[in-house]
Amino acid sequence: MRTSARARPAGAPSRFDDADLSAAAALLEDASSVVILAHVNPDADALGSALALGLALSRNGCTVQVAFAEPAEIPESLAGLAGAELVVPADDVDPTPGLLVTVDVNSRARLGRLGALVDTTPRTLVVDHHASNTRFGSDHVVDVTAESTTVLIAALLDRMGLPIDTDIAENLYAGLATDTVGFRHSTGAGHRLAGRLLDVGVSPDELMRPITDTHPEGWLGMLAAVLGRAEVVTASTGTRVVWTWITTEDAAGLRSEELDSVIDIVRTTKGTQVAAVFKQAGPAHWQVSLRSLPGTDVSAVATVLGGGGHVRAAGYSCDGTIGQARERLLAALSG
């Protein structure tokens, strides 16, 4: 049997913009059908936000679909999140929902082919915490001070007076824990929300182990190859960068989750300010993950290179040889 946190009174004060929260709550309360979109290759914050909101709305009588353009299925590490029954294939999404909601999506491009829904839906509510958000859509709850998009979803549910039960709490916690790197980058408010979610019944070890702490044996061989070729280089500004790359051969048989974990190992290199991992996505196409220490804004760097993200965690895509890709990054860091 689910347990629930007592809902805060509708309209209760929040640390986020009251007008934006109230307007978004009114949109959601008036909608009879909602499509909630996460970005391509959703992480725990994107999918956790979508499922938490979807569960709350569906239990309040709303027809809900949750979707993302790719991959075709929920990533294996996130398959245990409650609410997976709300997820529909991209091809089956209602083309004309009463309301479109995007979560953890900084730009229309991050919706992939489902971005066309922005044109066919009368209102699009964008809920996000990225500094690089382009303000697409008609309505916004965008706050860069939020530790995760799930924090904003929790605030929205409180504004609507909807209860947070264990299923919803697990989705909220997954996004908050991952986006704060295990609460290392959380404010006191983020910790207090986590405590509230624990009180509802979240078991952090049981919830987070498959998301962040479980990898197949093949992961070890990939790590050995990729870490073995890691290098430290210095940009013209003096910024020291540790970088490496993952080829399609390295990645054979592995999930995207395994590849995404490499940056969190590389970034621990002492004496460097920026970490970069280039993941081969085609013969001459790379997806790049960036991390930084305080004082270096990799979101600004990624934006220059056509991507975006957070001050200390960002990404972008580029074409060319691995040498050319590296030089473009160093040039952007030097600019």
Automatic annotation (TrEMBL):
Source organism, top-level taxon: Bacteria
Transmembrane segments: none
Domain (DDH) ranges: 34-175
Pfam family name, one: DHH
Gene3D superfamilies: 3.10.310.30, inorganic pyrophosphatase (n-terminal core) (3.90.1640.10)
Coiled coil: none
One MF term in the entry's GO annotations: nucleic acid binding
PANTHER family noted in UniProt: BIFUNCTIONAL OLIGORIBONUCLEASE AND PAP PHOSPHATASE NRNA
The protein's name in its UniProt record: Bifunctional oligoribonuclease/PAP phosphatase NrnA
Taxonomic path: Bacteria, Bacillati, Actinomycetota, Actinomycetes, Nakamurellales
